[in-house]
Design goal:
- The complex is a heterotrimer of chains A (524), B (331) and C (278).
- Chain A is of the alpha/beta class and 524 residues long.
- Chain A has 4 domains: 1-70 and 153-238 and 509-524, P-loop containing nucleotide triphosphate hydrolases (Rossmann fold), CATH 3.40.50; 83-151; 245-323 and 421-507, Rossmann fold; 352-419.
- Helices cover 37% and strands 20% of the residues of chain A.
- A 6-stranded mixed β-sheet of chain A has the order 4-5-6-1-7-8, with helices on both faces. A 6-stranded mixed β-sheet of chain A has the order 14-15-16-11-17-18, sandwiched between helices.
- The longest helix of chain A is centred in the middle third of the chain and has 18 residues, at 167-184.
- Chain B is flat, with a radius of gyration of 25 Å.
- By secondary structure, chain B is mainly α.
- Chain C has 278 residues and is mostly helical.
- Chain C has helices at 19-33, 35-38, 70-106, 108-122, 126-137, 141-151, 153-168, 171-178, 183-219, 231-238, 247-268.
- In chain C, 56% of the residues are buried.
- The model of chain C is unreliable at 1-15 and 270-278 (pLDDT under 50).
- Classes of the chains: A alpha/beta (524), B mainly alpha (331), C mainly alpha (278).
- Chains in contact: A-B, A-C, B-C.
- The B-C interface holds B 27-28, 31-32, 35-36, 39-40, 43, 45, 156-157, 159-165, 168-169, 171-172, 176, 183, 259-260, 262-263, 266-267, 270-271, 281-282, 284-286, 288, 290, 293, 297, 300-301, 304-305, 308 and C 120-121, 123-129, 131-139, 208, 212, 215-216, 219-222, 232, 235, 239, 242-243, 246, 249-250, 253, 256-257, 260-261, 263-264, 268.
Chain lengths: 524, 331, 278
């Protein structure tokens, strides 16, 4: 049963947030409200009511009739949420005609222009002529909000509306939703996995887990004094609640393990287009036992930098030094690099061969470098499992039998097998639920304390960076925008870009005043 | 990214794209000619020996003078490369050579039967395209519905039935048992119906299967869910959005469909004893009549690659995503 | 929680094993392997007194124009049809898997060159390629196997390459390179195991196509010659009498269709190596 015994009330003009981890039944709830469950699902209602403008309750028998006119839906993934073959104007025209009965081209066009301008879309006449793939993610999400509002619904269902967007875009979209809600007296049911987003944006909070409501109430009340153990756990595991990394003060400057000097990499975008400078003139030094974080929005060049540093791609310009020696090519150089630098991927499910037992996976680097006998390798694999706090018996299981968090622990164990001096972490927790994230970050910290290796962390999550890194490198369009001790970067950023990035991060602490604070920011 | 291509900016990539597609067409035709030439003329089996063997069956051996004369007449005494280039030049000029078997110009032999084949292929396409589109649209109306479950495996089943057997079954039922249509070799429209159906069925089975999968895939796209969530009726969402998106991959298969129909004529014309290119090919292959086989192979390549060329040129008009200069397809 | 493993071996959603299809293939395989044991009579024994008899208990498939038992001829025909088919498949499989592996794993210039050739060949109906090869090599079952096998190489090689590329692009393959595993071992341990299932399933589908092509070409008269039975030529010779003796074409055709449908079914079911015929 995906969702069981759920009661939900969304008051007029108010945002209710539905929070929970993946698989908790949030999306199922939204789809059930619209009568859009798959055939295999059965939905039972005791009561579904909609109140009209006067406040009279109307009982609804067929939820499908609510679609568009009473309830609008804003989807999670703006990329695939629009028919790719038709222009923006036709998206509007179709709804105008079939929902409102407006068939006049001029009237439809005027309405579309007004609607786009109302959600802060610039150059609206141009946008109407464009196809969805020509719009950026933020624009598409604004367009989707517009389209959801065509039938003048009184309730908006927002299904993780910003989880695929960069933090700064996320903030603007959420501001827009707040603005529309206040201006038009809409109600918003905001589904999110991010407690901080819920805290900032909602007046009421519903916490779900395993298809059931764990706790519900006013947002301030629930977050200020959580009753359910799960809510408490959720609050405690928020990235912003992790203790900040203590300042790194070595007695003497430690050895430099990994260094990049003016490294650059470009990709040609076709014959007639300018090459894209994915990484340009980046300097980086990673000292023994230190953690350096690379931060930035999507497209900033974080991943390319990481692939250059781990030898997965060759730099066009500049040098990369491992332990003071330039990174060579060829098999022996690769093997030497593998013993010093190991990589943990973002998605553990795809970075582990699903056909092999866990024990073999962990021992494979040892096997590749012919370390010890088979029996010794198997013993080592079990010891590594213990280090990442997994039971020894897991050695015989295969990846599909493990959860995402457990798999990432296996990936870490494999990375530690050759006792590297540097572990490169590529968004190591972003594919995981928050509670699991928290436990994994703590594990990484304690491993570093015990084993003393250096981490190079790539992350878009400021909370994770604050907790993990001694030094932060903010990247923007392939270049280093700002660098410094993490504490300094977070408290006194010198670059306006960094400041904007930090400001956009939703926080748990000033528990949300649901009213939009900055009316103006929605329009740009 | 959000810039509209305008004026000269847009012309060059498009022109380049068109030229590349034409180039590809030429490469395919040339490759087929080369392959056919190598197989038919460059392999050790000697066409003249085969030819004489056939012609003078049982009438004793032939003299070396006869052989030499034949070699000269068919230009087989020239070096391979010269023949390769010369023959291609003549093909371009419309001279398809002379048949080993009959001594007739290949062009006349082809010209005599080509209209029959084109009529058959055209009729089959006229049946196959609407039939498969209709069948797929009906089947995929509701994924997981009763109709879907009933019909979803039918195309794969029909595609697995041997085409020549299907033709014979149709003949058996409609000509011999029911006597609705004349048995074999019939002329006019009545004689065309049964062969065209026999040819169209396997082809439309394959097409339906692909279109059905395409429709099912598009239905799972988030934008379809969202269109329904905005209150549009399913009929509108299905016909205006799902069907249109599903038609694009379907279009790329139309080229393959033409290929399938062409290959099918070989079987169908034999089964129904119709004269045509397919049957001519069958008999020419059997007696290793190289000039006729080569001409038909190149003709097939021109039709097939030409069809693909037309589709490649149409595609950017239908899918805005690949119209953008600098995107993978046009660049 | 939904497991984050989008089935790496495709077609793994079928569920039930295709028992009926496997049974049909088992019977056909037994007939092809030991036709003498399965067939009730001599397929070549003529008996003019028993010409063109309709199917009966005595002659389950009836008799032909020379009084030969059609059932026995169909069983012996299985040997000719399926052995030619398997030979063609072995030929196609060997060549295409080699091409696919080389192209998919080495990538770069090798890949581009091989795929350019394959693409051109793909741009032709495979029947036309087969006919060209028959026209060059001459008729007969062996030449037919080569012709059909070669004609199915392009499509087969393309899919093999796509499979190798799909698995090679998985992060775990890159990860294996990242901790220093040799390329050859990566191919053997991480890439091949995940391509085996889909490729064997594909081989079953390919065999279906090949058996169809072999019988079609035999029907056209390029394969096994009468009086030796083969499914395609049985149907071809049956045509001469099919206004009066429907069983001569219909029953061999039905057997052929059943085998092809069964191969399709097995090819689409979970890629269990034990169920495929390779």
């Amino acid at each position: 049963m995906a969702v069981d015994d759920l009661s939900l009330t969304v008051p007029a003009g108010c945002t209710v947030a539905l929070v929970g981890e993946s698989g908790s039944g949030k999306s199922t709830t939204l789809h059930a409200l619209l009568g859009m469950t798959p055939r295999s699902a059965t939905v039972g209602y005791r009561l579904l009511e909609v109140r009209d403008h006067a406040g009279t309750a109307l009982r609804v028998d067929d939820p499908a009739r609510l679609r568009g006119r009473s309830i609008g839906l804003i989807p999670q993934d703006p990329v695939r949420a629009l028919d790719p073959l038709i222009r923006v104007e036709r998206h509007f025209a179709e709804l105008h005609r079939h929902l409102l009965g407006i068939s006049g081209r001029d009237e439809s066009r005027q309405r579309a222009l007004d609607a786009l301008e109302a959600v802060g879309v610039d150059r609206a006449p141009l946008r109407l002529r464009q196809y969805p793939h020509e719009l950026s993610g933020g624009l598409r999400q604004r367009l989707l909000i517009c389209l959801a509002l065509v039938g003048e619904p009184r309730l908006l269902l927002a299904d993780e509306p910003t989880s695929n967007l960069d933090t700064s875009v996320q903030r603007r979209i959420l501001d827009l939703l707040d603005h529309l809600r206040a201006q038009r007296g809409l109600s918003v049911l905001l589904v999110t996995h991010d407690l901080a987003v819920a805290a900032e944006r909602s007046a009421e909070l519903v916490v779900m887990r395993h298809g059931r409501v764990v706790e519900a109430g006013g947002t301030a009340t629930v977050l200020g004094d959580p009753q359910a153990p799960y809510t408490r756990q959720l609050l405690a595991s928020a990235p912003s609640r992790l203790p900040a990394r203590p300042v790194f003060r070595p007695h003497q400057p430690p050895r430099i393990l990994l260094e990049a000097r003016e490294v650059g990499k470009s990709f040609s975008g076709g014959r007639r287009t300018e090459p894209v400078h994915a990484v340009a003139d980046v300097d980086l030094q990673l000292h023994h036992g230190q953690t350096v974080a690379v931060v930035g929005e999507s497209g900033a060049g974080k991943s390319t930098l990481l692939r250059l540093l781990t030898g997965l791609e060759r730099a066009d310009r500049g040098t990369i030094l491992v332990d003071g020696r330039p990174l060579g090519s060829g098999r022996t150089a690769r093997a030497g690099l593998a013993r010093r630098v190991q990589l943990v991927y973002q998605n553990p499910a795809s970075s582990l061969n699903p056909a092999l037992p866990i024990g073999r996976i962990i021992a494979e680097p040892l096997e590749a470098h012919r370390v010890g006998s088979a029996a010794a390798r198997s013993r080592r694999a079990r010891a590594l499992l213990e280090q990442v706090e997994l039971p020894e018996q897991f050695a015989l299981r295969r990846p599909p039998q493990l959860s995402g968090g457990q798999l990432q622990r296996v990936a870490i164990a494999r990375a530690l097998a050759l006792e590297p001096e540097v572990v490169v972490l590529d968004e190591p927790v972003s594919a995981l639920d928050q509670v699991v994230q928290h436990a994994l970050l703590r594990l990484l910290l304690s491993l570093q304390r015990r084993l003393g290796m250096a981490y190079l962390l790539v992350s878009h999550d400021m909370g994770v960076v604050r907790a993990m890194a001694d030094e932060a490198l903010v990247m923007r369009r392939g270049r280093v925008e700002e660098r410094g001790a993490t504490h300094d970067v977070f408290t006194t950023p010198t670059s306006p870009y960094t400041r904007a990035l930090l400001d956009a991060v939703p926080t748990l602490d000033p528990v949300g005043d649901p009213a939009p604070q900055e009316e103006g920011t929605a329009h740009r | 990214m959000t810039k509209q291509p305008t004026g000269a900016d847009a012309v060059w990539p498009v022109l380049g794209y068109v030229l590349r597609r034409f180039g590809y067409f030429a490469v395919v035709v040339l490759a087929v000619y080369t392959l056919a030439f190598l197989l038919l003329y460059a392999l050790p089996s000697d066409p003249v020996a085969v030819m004489l063997d056939r012609r003078s069956s049982g009438a004793g051996g032939s003299t070396p003078e006869q052989i030499a004369e034949l070699r000269e007449r068919y230009g087989l005494d020239e070096p391979l490369l010269v023949r390769y280039a010369g023959m291609f030049g003549r093909l371009l000029g419309g001279d398809l050579g002379v048949s080993f078997q009959s001594g007739q110009p290949v062009r006349d032999a082809l010209g005599a039967v080509a209209p029959n084949t084109l009529a058959l292929a055209g009729a089959a396409l006229l049946i196959a395209l609407p039939l498969s589109a209709l069948l797929a649209l009906v089947t995929s109306w509701r994924a997981g519905g009763v109709v879907h479950r009933l019909l979803v495996n039918v195309p794969a089943f029909i595609a697995a039935i041997p085409a020549f057997w299907l033709g014979l079954l149709l003949l058996q039922v409609f000509s011999f048992s029911l006597r609705w249509v004349p048995p074999a070799g019939g002329t006019g429209l009545a004689g065309l119906v049964l062969p065209a159906v026999a040819l169209a069925l396997p082809v439309s089975a394959a097409l339906t299967a692909v279109l059905m999968r395409s429709l099912d895939d598009v239905q799972r796209a988030p934008f379809v869910t969202l269109l329904s969530a905005r209150g549009l009726r399913w009929r509108r969402v299905y016909l205006a959005h799902v069907a249109r998106n599903a038609l694009l991959p379907f279009l790329t298969l139309a080229g393959l469909t033409v290929g399938g129909v062409m290959a099918g004529t070989v079987i169908t014309e034999t089964v129904f004893s119709r004269s045509g290119l397919g049957r001519l090919l069958v008999s020419s292959v059997e007696v290793q009549d190289a000039p006729v086989v080569l001409a038909i192979a190149v003709f097939g390549a021109v039709v097939f690659a030409g069809m693909n060329l037309v589709i490649d040129l149409l595609y950017p008009l239908l899918d805005p995503r690949i119209r953008r200069p600098g995107s993978g397809v046009l660049a | 929680m939904s497991r984050p493993f989008p089935a790496l071996t495709r077609g793994a959603c079928g569920g039930r094993r295709p028992w009926a299809a496997l049974a049909i293939l088992g019977v056909a395989g037994a007939a092809a392997a030991l036709p003498g044991l399965v067939a009730p009579r001599d397929p070549l024994a003529e008996d003019v007194s028993r010409r063109l008899l309709a199917p009966s208990l005595h002659h389950p498939f009836g008799t032909d124009e020379l009084g030969r038992d059609l059932f026995s001829r169909v069983i012996h025909g299985a040997q000719a049809s399926l052995s030619t088919g398997l030979l063609a498949l072995a030929f196609a499989f060997g060549v295409s898997v080699l091409i696919g592996l080389l192209a998919g794993y080495l990538g770069g210039a090798v890949d581009r060159a091989l795929m350019a050739v394959v693409d051109v060949l793909l741009a032709l109906p495979s029947l036309l390629i087969s006919l060209l090869i028959v026209a060059s090599l001459g008729t007969g079952p062996l030449n037919l196997a080569v012709a059909v096998g070669l004609a199915s190489v392009p499509a087969f090689a393309r899919v093999t390459r796509a499979e190798v590329m799909r698995v090679s692009s998985q992060p775990f393959v890159e990860a294996a390179g990242g901790f220093g595993l040799a390329r050859r071992r990566i191919l053997v341990r991480h890439v091949l195991p995940h391509t085996r299932g889909p490729i064997t399933a594909l081989a079953a589908l390919e065999l279906a196509t090949i058996v169809l092509s072999v019988s079609a070409l035999s029907f056209l008269g390029y394969g096994t010659r009468p009086p030796d039975p083969e499914w395609g030529n049985l149907i071809a010779t049956g045509r001469d009498h099919f206004a009066t003796a429907w069983w001569l074409t219909s029953l061999p055709g039905a057997v052929l269709a059943a085998v092809v449908v069964a191969l399709h079914r097995v090819g689409r079911s979970p890629g269990d190596p034990g169920t495929s015929l390779v």
